[in-house]
Amino acid sequence: MLANAPEPLGNLEPLRLLFLLLRGNPAEIPESLKQQALAIIEQARQIVTDANIIDGDTLPEAIALALAMRSSQQLAQDISQIHGLDNIDPARADRTLEHLNAAFAG
Amino acid sequence: MPHLLVDTNLRLLKSRLEALDDNAYFDLRITAYVRQLRKIIETLLSASAPVPNQLKHFITHQIWRATEFIAGSTTRLQPYESVYGLQCATREWLPQEPLIVTALIQEPNFYFLGVNPLFKNLASAGLGIADEIVQISLPEIYRQKPLYSIAVYHELGHYIDTNFSVSDTVLALNPQLALPGMTGPMSPEQQLMRRRHLREYFADLFAACYCGVAIKRFLEGFAPDATASASHPESYQRWQVIQALVSGTQHFLVDAFNQALKARRLPPLSLRYERVNVSQQFKAIRPVTLSSIKQVYGIFDAAWEFLDSEADNAQDPWNRMDPGEIERVVNDLVEKSIRNWMVRERWEHAPLTSR
Predict the structure, then answer these.
(1) Residue A3 resides in a domain
(2) B162 vs A28: CB contact, 8 Å cut-off?
(3) How far is it, in rounded angstroms, from Cα B83 to Cα B288?
(4) Does residue A24 sit within a domain?
(5) pTM for the full model?
(6) How far apart are CA A14 and CA B55, in angstroms?
(7) What is the distance between the alpha carbons of residues A21 and A38, in angstroms, rounded to a whole number?
């Protein structure tokens, strides 16, 4: 009501965890998390191009990520380069995580 | 093998959940939820393949949080009349009624805490936890004060917003939207502030849909002179937006939210309550007979008004009460009025065989 609960990334926490795990051993990442993250990223890219595609089926996390991409060019660039999770090395995961955190650290 | 605090925490939480399993809850689904959380812990502790430590920490944190809310939701602690109204309010927003759990806190604030979507997905895929969980905390001193607990509707608004990204949809559709007190080009920090303020406006408007001016009266008393912060707009601006909705005055924020709600195929912001006349019954220290769920919402506004003005002018026995007693009796009357409605509703909808 007067202060926010400590949940900086809100519904983007799964993405944060994904990039956190990508810095370690990607083989240990649960398949459900990978699928969820890729779906969020794919939809977010579409929303950045045209927000009018948002409808009742759009993932809420994708809308949040699209907004973050609009406010951070660096994050937008990171996300636009993700086409699968196999080609993300720890350094890139670390960079993306940093940009994601920065987009929500006011 | 090194000592892992995270495993110890899981074992401690398991014991705590075992103890909570013995409690009674108004919503029987909570017991099932407790058992599912225990199963998650057992699975984590006995997993044959090692679970990544970060993932284990993440899940432990979620369970810890859930435990706090379960502990506050026993029949002895949960403000059931307030939660009942919330349950009814969710019906038009969600396909099925969520499980609402409450935590009682010792600070002057109300919080909504989301269940992490990842935890939800993992729990749903692994253990079939299908219920949506809404976690709301409120000050313990308001536990039996339904009039002062109406901010839980504001918190439910946060849940709806988070669940459907309503405020984010507003910003996606209106990138240049300027909020009261924020003009000109915005730095990334200001954009973030705009997003947070927008979420507060939505939660306020959501609460106003059910509680009307009562939420404004509460906010006026609870945070009379709060200035704008990084997370919250100035109280005065919040009152203005609430007032616009309840008085039917056009306001660009209400329009923007309704545009987003439409895009998300959700119902619009509109008034859901029906005015109740409490004066006659309350003056005689009697609960009112509510005849619809709209009146359950409407009693808040009427009771606030009674508390603010009429109680002062009422005759015996009100004129013999001190302010503390007046407040307690009015809250009691609201609680009893809602409880009577709940009992009647349950009776009318109970299967004939169980009567």
Answers:
(1) no
(2) no
(3) 19
(4) yes
(5) 0.91
(6) 11
(7) 15
Question: B162–A104: do the CB atoms touch at under 8 Å?
Answer: no
Report the domain count for chain A: 1
Query: Could you give the CA distance from residue B195 to residue B40 in angstroms, rounded to a whole number?
Result: 35
**Residue B268 C-alpha from the chain's centroid:** 19
* Structure tokens, B116: 């992490």
SS3 B104: strand
DSSP H helical segments within chain B, as ranges? Answer: 5-21, 29-46, 53-71, 80-90, 117-127, 151-164, 166-173, 188-211, 213-222, 235-247, 252-263, 279-283, 293-305, 311-313, 323-349
B216 CB neighbour count, 10 Å cutoff: 24
Residue B72 identity:
G
Report the Cα–Cα distance between both ends of chain A, in Å, rounded: 19
* 3-state SS class at B129: coil
Residue A1 maps to a domain: no
Structural domain contains residue A6: no
Q: Do B264 and A58 touch (CB under 8 A)?
A: yes
Please write the tens of the pLDDT for every residue from B189-211.
Answer: 888 899 999 999 999 999 999 99
In degrees and rounded to multiples of 5, residue B136 shows phi and psi of -130, 135
Q: Kindly state the average pLDDT of the residues B30-53.
A: 86
Is the peptide bond prior to B117 cis by the omega test (within 30 degrees of 0)?
no
Contacts for A39 with CB less than 8 Å, ≥ 6 apart: A59, A62
Chain B residue with minimum CA distance to A48: B172
Q: Which two tokens stand for residue B221?
A: 């008393």
Which residues in chain B are contacts of A25 at CB distance < 8 A? 52
